[in-house]
Design a protein that fits this description.
Layout lengths: L7 H31 L5 H18 L5 H27 L8 H9 L15 E8 L2 E12 L4 E10 L1
């Protein structure tokens, strides 16, 4: 790998590629959600996998104007959906221990198994919601979590509202 001092032009182009990548990620979320609502019997894994493969195919085949931006957008779409599939698989198939070492914690953070990936355990005491639930308005969900110092071991929920 070789690097050189970036110019204003290359910095601007890299920023545009980043924006295209991020726009592609968000567009794929919208496409996945829309597809799931239109075809509710379709497994989410198939939708996500289909979007990822289609996006990679489009990135490989595109030859028009602004090729670097279009490819970045398509790769962003594929990255978002493939990442969701990897996270889902990891959550279902990898286990986490309270005494994990540095390498295991790195893997857990990479796979989203440690929560936020910043080694901060989050214990929500109360999540204020303003969402409609059927004909009632749900105002709050109170989460009571018992912990053993490392992880939540027992959780109860109380729904409050009109």
């Amino acid at each position: 790998m070789k690097f050189k001092k970036p110019s204003e032009k290359t910095v601007k182009r890299a920023a545009l590629q980043f924006a295209a990548f991020e726009a592609g990620k968000r567009a794929s979320r919208g496409a996945a959600g829309l597809t799931q609502r239109q075809l509710p019997t379709t497994k989410p894994e198939y939708v996500k996998g289909g979007i990822a493969l289609l996006s990679l195919g489009l990135a490989a085949a595109y030859t028009g104007k602004n090729k670097d931006l279009v490819i970045a957008g398509c790769v962003g779409m594929a990255s978002e959906q493939a990442g969701d599939l990897i996270d889902t698989y990891a959550a279902e198939n990898l286990s986490r221990k309270a005494d994990d070492g540095a390498v295991e914690n790195f893997i857990n953070d990479a796979m989203g198994l440690n929560g936020c990936g910043c080694n901060q355990t989050q214990y929500p005491a109360q999540a204020q919601l303003n969402a409609s639930y059927g004909s009632k308005t749900l105002e709050a969900v109170v989460w009571n979590g018992a912990t053993n110092g490392e992880e939540i071991i027992d959780t109860t929920y109380e729904f409050a509202g009109a």
